[in-house]
Amino acid sequence: MKKAFFKALVKFNNLVMPSLYQKDPMKLNNVQKAILGFRYWALTNSMR
Q1: Number of domains in the chain
Q2: Measured between alpha carbons, how far is 46 from 48 in angstroms, rounded to an integer?
């Protein structure tokens, strides 16, 4: 159940949230860092 929720969350993130993979993390502003962290958190939890 938990894994299915996070997989759905990752699909939602890919559709709605901006992609930041080509940008330098040190040059991102605080909102972009929060988005990047949330995407990473959801992805790692969907893989467990």
Answers
A1: 1
A2: 6
